[in-house]
Each structure stands twice: as structure tokens, then as C-alpha cells.
Amino acid sequence: MKSYIALALAAPVLVSAQQSMWGQCGGIGWTGPTNCNPPAACSTLNPYYAQCLSSVGGPTTTARTTTTTARTTTTTTRTTTPVTTPSTTPRTSTTTTTSSAPVGTGLDALIKSKGKKYVGFCADPATLNIAQNVAILRAEAGQVTPENSMKWQSIEPSQNSYSWGNADTLANWAQTNGKIIRGHTFVWHSQLPSWVSNINNKATLTTVIQNHIAQVAGRYKGKIYAWDVANEVFNDDGTRRSSVFSNVFGDWTFLDVAFRAARAADPDAKLCLNDYNLDYSGAKLNNFVQLVKDLIARGVPIDCVGTQSHLVVGNGAIPSFKSTLDALASTGLEVQITELDIRTNASPSSQQITQQGNDYRSVASACIKTAACSGITIWGVSDKDSWVPQTFSGQGYALLWDNNYQKKTTAYNGFVAGINS
């Protein structure tokens, strides 16, 4: 069941097509070009993904060619149903996908055909127990992000006492179904166990951060494409958020500790800084970009930046979303849209439904047209399992599938149109 073989990059093969920077060039199931336009070189990031990265100091901080391992069995059956976050029960009726990417359906295959890395969705064991949700994930997703199961409170509720069950379930499901994983998250002010929140000594907190990351990243080493090493470190006004980490350290160096610990524990994973409300030009976006540049300047190992992108239908920031991605790309790092949803009224008007389709198109198009943007994660499959209604009273309808796991044609087609733009 866990039979592995070494996956090494073959010498470049002469083919008629070459991938540009950030494009996929190998991995389990990949049938496209396996060489890259200079100065990019094809680098293996995990068993499922090899990518064209800079070999001469281009827009990525570290181009890795480390040999990784891959499962010997690579055939995956997928249903033609859309994607959701909540389920695992397998459907009885499936169709076997072919090596060719479907046109206009299968969001992950479609975005890969445009040279990007993935369309993903958040998931966890609770949603992996829902047959409709799993069927959608199998058909549409290339990546999953644990919604809650890898957060500190979930994994290490008591010091040095670990609860791996839910995270293991998600990781095993992803491997079995040929999906890459974005790990989420190590250092965050929320969902922290009280024993961490109550630490008031810098040396103690440093050791605790290092140990937690070593244990978690070490357990899933080689199985994670990218880690959200730190999450939501800014207030909306662009100031440093108050947390046990920032308060005890008194500066940004808690990030240095976390990123260095993550690199030591999982050297081949991408390491990301993630935040929300970066979708508006202003102090928060500007200071986020400057912080990343400062981290790079002092040699902190950081590979990617994430914008959560929890948006509202018709918001004025959406038409200029490309500008947000451009600002993030100015760091020289890979840019990822990490938690996309676009909420509106729980019972939207036809005008709001139309606008939502336009907004999904705008966001997807912005990623396609930004070379540094590597992929998009949607924060859930079905509205039934979305965090939005319980957080924003009277709002919802934020995802691409409705409460009954039926595809919302306008939103879905808008997203497809954005990928095809």
C-alpha cells in the first residue's frame, strides 16, 4: 500500500512545446512538456509536481532538483461530478479519466493546461466523509488544504502530546487520490492551545515553535507541496498583529524562527506567508510586501506569498485584483490565492448571481495573467460546508456548488472563463 519508487528528473527531452517559468514540467500523471524555456529548469518539488523554476536567480528564491519519491500506482478514477470540501465516502458510479485534459470541465486539468500548478479546495475528515464532496474533489481538484486538522490546537493540544488522526486522514486521502497538499498552518494567533498562548519567555517560545514545526513538518516531510508557515500576522491597518508570538518577541523575528525551523524540517516544501484583506491597495498590502522583502534581505527561507481572497460580490477591489497580484509578485516569490470565496446574500438576486460569475472570472483571469501566480485554492466545495454563513449573518452562497452539491453554473462558468481568458 505504501510502495515507493524514486522519481528523478530525466534529462531534458526534445519536444515541440516548452513550458514557461512556473509551468508544470513533470510529476505523476503529467503528459505535457518536460522541458522549460531558458533560463528556467525543470525541478521536482514533490512526487506529483515538477515545475519550471529559475536556474539563474529568477523570480523564485530556491530552485530545487532534489530527487523525491513517488507511489508506484498512479492511476486514479474520478467522477464527473464537481468539487466539494466535506466528504470521503466513495461514489459507486465513476468514470476513468484519460490522460488528456478536459476542456471547460475539470478545473485542475484546465488550469494546468494554461501552465499553472493547481486548482485546490480545503478539506478535512468531516467533509471527506461526504460522498458528493469527495466525488467533486476527485473530478475537479489537484490540491487540498486542511481546513482545520493541521492547526496547532488540533495537532498539539497539550505540550508534546500529539493528535495526528485527522491530519493523517487528510494526508493519506490526498496521496491515495493523487492530490498535492498545502499545509495550513504553523504560526497563527488563532486556534492556539492555551499552553502556547500563556508562554511569556522568548527562549521558551523559540524552543516551542521549533519543536512544534519539527514534529509536524517532519511527520509529513515529502508529502506537502507548500506550508503556510505563518498566517495573518498583520492588522487591517498594516500594523503588526498582537499575538503571543509578536508580543513575546517584540518584533518580526518570530517569523525568522518559524521559517528556518520549517526549512530544516521539510527542505523541499515551499514555505509561504499568508494573510487576508490583501485585496485592497493600502497600508496592509504595502507593509506585507515590505515585510517579505525584509525577510528575503536577511536570508530567511521564504518561497511564496498567499492572499486568502475572502471576497464580497461586487466589491470594488475585484476588478483590480490583477494589481494586487502584481504587488505581491514584486517580492520575486511565487504567489498563491489560498482561500478564495466570494460571498453575497444567502438568497441572492439574479443580478448578484450574475455579478458573482463575473467576479470569479476576474479573479481566475488575474491569476492566469500573472506569471508568478501558481494556483488557486477555493475555500470549500459546497455552500453547505462553507464557513461564511456562521461568520457573516445573512450572507453565504460563496462557493461553486450549492447546498445540495449541485454546480452553480454561473459561478462555475465564470471561473472557467477566467482560466480560459
Automatic annotation (TrEMBL):
<feature type="active site" description="Nucleophile">
    <location>
        <position position="339"/>
    </location>
</feature>
<keyword id="KW-0964">Secreted</keyword>
<dbReference type="Pfam" id="PF00331">
    <property type="entry name" value="Glyco_hydro_10"/>
</dbReference>
<keyword id="KW-0858">Xylan degradation</keyword>
<feature type="domain" description="GH10">
    <location>
        <begin position="124"/>
        <end position="418"/>
    </location>
</feature>
<feature type="region of interest" description="Disordered">
    <location>
        <begin position="60"/>
        <end position="101"/>
    </location>
</feature>
<dbReference type="GO" id="GO:0045493">
    <property type="term" value="P:xylan catabolic process"/>
</dbReference>
<keyword id="KW-0732">Signal</keyword>
<dbReference type="GO" id="GO:0005576">
    <property type="term" value="C:extracellular region"/>
</dbReference>
<dbReference type="InterPro" id="IPR044846">
    <property type="entry name" value="GH10"/>
</dbReference>
<keyword id="KW-0119">Carbohydrate metabolism</keyword>
<dbReference type="GO" id="GO:0030248">
    <property type="term" value="F:cellulose binding"/>
</dbReference>
<dbReference type="Pfam" id="PF00734">
    <property type="entry name" value="CBM_1"/>
</dbReference>
<keyword id="KW-0378">Hydrolase</keyword>
<dbReference type="InterPro" id="IPR035971">
    <property type="entry name" value="CBD_sf"/>
</dbReference>
<protein>
    <recommendedName>
        <fullName>Beta-xylanase</fullName>
        <ecNumber>3.2.1.8</ecNumber>
    </recommendedName>
</protein>
<dbReference type="InterPro" id="IPR000254">
    <property type="entry name" value="CBD"/>
</dbReference>
<comment type="pathway">
    <text>Glycan degradation; xylan degradation.</text>
</comment>
<comment type="similarity">
    <text>Belongs to the glycosyl hydrolase 10 (cellulase F) family.</text>
</comment>
<keyword id="KW-0624">Polysaccharide degradation</keyword>
<feature type="domain" description="CBM1">
    <location>
        <begin position="17"/>
        <end position="53"/>
    </location>
</feature>
<dbReference type="InterPro" id="IPR001000">
    <property type="entry name" value="GH10_dom"/>
</dbReference>
<dbReference type="GO" id="GO:0031176">
    <property type="term" value="F:endo-1,4-beta-xylanase activity"/>
</dbReference>
<dbReference type="InterPro" id="IPR017853">
    <property type="entry name" value="GH"/>
</dbReference>
<keyword id="KW-0326">Glycosidase</keyword>
<feature type="signal peptide">
    <location>
        <begin position="1"/>
        <end position="17"/>
    </location>
</feature>
<dbReference type="InterPro" id="IPR031158">
    <property type="entry name" value="GH10_AS"/>
</dbReference>
